[in-house]
Amino acid sequence: MGRHSSLVIVPTYNESHNIRRLIRLVMKLGDIDLLIIDDGSPDGTAEIVKEEQKKFSDHLLLIERPGKLGLGTAYVRGFKYALEHDYQYICEMDADFSHDPNDLPILINEVKDGRADLAVGSRYANGISIINWPLSRLILSYSANLYARFITGLPIFDTTAGYKCIHRKVLEGISVDKISSNGYAFQIELHFRAWIAGFRLKEVAIIFREREEGVSKMSKSIVWEAIWRVWALKIKSIFGAL
Ligand SMILES: Nc1nc2c(ncn2[C@@H]2O[C@H](COP(=O)(O)OP(=O)(O)O[C@H]3O[C@H](CO)[C@@H](O)[C@H](O)[C@@H]3O)[C@@H](O)[C@H]2O)c(=O)[nH]1
């Protein structure tokens, strides 16, 4: 057991308008460490984190990478940190308040109390619980999830969900270095590897709100990666080559 058992990993790229408030909200929850993985944000996100570190000392951690290297590799870097520092419950969360930090204890308790090995904060577990997304984004996300679910057989509705709590045994069991997707496909790959390895996934309904500050980093290449990656994952799993 580490000094503190729960670690929330938040990747950031140009989140200067959100990060201070996010840090303060998470720190208020107590008993949770926060690790920011910043990719050299030109808007000075990392500098704000450093200012806040004076207040929250070793409960607020920062890893800086030299340039925009993608959400997937940011999380893999964070997972390795969590494993090296003996954290038991490891969460993923966006920096932009799409994910309500007040849901963190709910996700963590699902895993802590043994109801799941991986608790997925789901936008589609209870109908559709997304606020303020343009219809085009909703259709894209919903159909991407149907597609990924159909091909992989994953037993969850929100395969690309980016809000979750993972027991460390899952990260140990799937060898995080093997994860090779980098965009939203990263989320599908993580869920798929955990499920194939026999871990229990459970969806917990959350409300997802479109960000009010900053912009989404979604791009065409992220969408394409998700389209072909699900096939690659499925084929690899059929041949036992995951
Ligand atoms: N370090 C780092 N952080 C990044 C990068 N790209 C995005 N981020 C950070 O990752 C978080 C999510 O990025 P957004 O660009 O806001 O994502 P989104 O379009 O709202 O996508 C959300 O929904 C997807 C599914 O629809 C999810 O798959 C995704 O994980 C996320 O939750 C934010 O904190 C953002 O700053 C990157 O290259 N590097």
From TrEMBL:
Protein keywords: Glycosyltransferase, Transferase
SUPFAM superfamilies, per the entry: Nucleotide-diphospho-sugar transferases (SSF53448)
Presence of keyword Glycosyltransferase: yes
Pfam families, sorted: Glycos_transf_2
InterPro entries (alphabetical): DPM1-like, Glyco_trans_2-like, Nucleotide-diphossugar_trans
Record domain Glycosyltransferase 2-like: where: 8-172
Alphabetized Gene3D superfamilies for the sequence: Spore Coat Polysaccharide Biosynthesis Protein SpsA, Chain A
Top-level taxonomic group: Bacteria
Family, as annotated: Belongs to the glycosyltransferase 2 family.
Protein name: Polyprenol monophosphomannose synthase
